[in-house]
Amino acid sequence: MRTIVGRLAAALVVLALMADVAAAQTRITIAVGGGACLCYLPTVLAKQLGEFDKAGLAVELVDLKGGSDALKAVLGGSADVVSGYFDHCVNLAAKKQELQAFVVYDRYPGLVLVVSPSHTGEIKTIKDLAGKKVGVSAPGSSTDFFLKYLLRKNGLDPASVAVIGVGLGAASVAAMQQGQIDAAVMLDPAVTVLQGSHPDLRILSDTRTQKDTLAVFGGEYPGGALYSTAAWVAAHQKEVQSLTDAILNTLAWIHSHSAEEVMAKMPPEMVGKDKALYLAALNNTLPMYSETGRMDPKGAEAVLAVFSEGSPEVAGANIDVSKTYTNRFVEQAGKTSDKTTGINAK
Fold this sequence. Notes:
- The chain is α/β, with parallel strands linked by helices.
- It has 2 domains: 2-108 and 221-340, Periplasmic binding protein-like II (D-Maltodextrin-Binding Protein, domain 2); 112-206, Periplasmic binding protein-like II (D-Maltodextrin-Binding Protein, domain 2, 3-Layer(aba) Sandwich), CATH 3.40.190.
- The chain is built from 17 helices and 10 strands.
- The chain has helices at residues 2-24, 41-48, 51-54, 67-75, 87-93, 142-153, 170-177, 190-197, 210-217, 230-235, 237-254, 259-265, 268-271, 275-285, 297-310, 312-315, 328-340, and strands spanning 26-32, 57-63, 81-85, 99-104, 112-115, 133-136, 162-165, 183-186, 203-206, 224-229.
- The chain has a 5-stranded mixed beta sheet with strand order 2-1-3-10-4, with helices on both faces. A 5-stranded mixed beta sheet has the order 7-6-8-5-9, with helices on both faces.
- Helix 7 runs parallel beside helix 8 (190-197).
- The longest helix is centred in the first third of the chain and has 23 residues, at 2-24.
- The chain starts with a helix and ends in a 6-residue tail after the last helix.
- 47% of the residues are buried.
- Residues 13-23 and 339-346 have low confidence and may be disordered.
């Protein structure tokens, strides 16, 4: 009897300690603009590696169809933070809505404009997209912004193209293969998956590498980042610092491990059945991930320049782009890690 009572008492102590730990963790909801997309991998991987837990956060990832849906979740109050493309912060500044990115995990946007396999013969350049149906993840998402920029850059009125939301990942691949659309702005692993079935896949524009990004934008162009409203960032600095620490530790882990090791940590449903194709896509994407987490001021200016060129509203808004991001939390993480763990967040 004493043994049973002792064990029950020990179990109660363990449960109490677990409850204390759970209570100590701050609950944060992050809206992700398409979790299966490799552009968002650092956020998903941070969860898989337990980095959010180590930082004292109980993080829930809410997977949505596209970046615009993730943004709506934060603006509507159903999520705290967006894991999405920084360009939304610039675009919304023109509407007097203050958003602020605090850690960048994609140095390049990784957006790829691809021709549907059944239309390779007729669509050879971006100008050939006039009158065509082009898929994006969701209207108002970064894929949509990218398409409109390329159309204007090539002398086309964006209104001459029918833009259709097809989601990301398997949904976009299916839409392309079934001929529902003539072309699409896609992201890996979807691009590499489609290439696996169609080796002669025509790519009209590719921003997965520094060389291609410079060719398209004339400079580096930041992609994925964690951001929220400026008011939330100001009111939750401890949580923002913890989120930043978790992402920086994840980026350091990515750059110190092989693509195979990264893949092994990802949820099986995101990797899918064809591990070889996923691995190929991951290898294509690894150069995209930031090593520092910092926003390059020139990159932020490039985003503003792109949107100013394509949007009269942004061009006339006199936006101070320096207010759409902060490097303060990344810099603080570097100081803290140097003193405690010896890990340099760069």
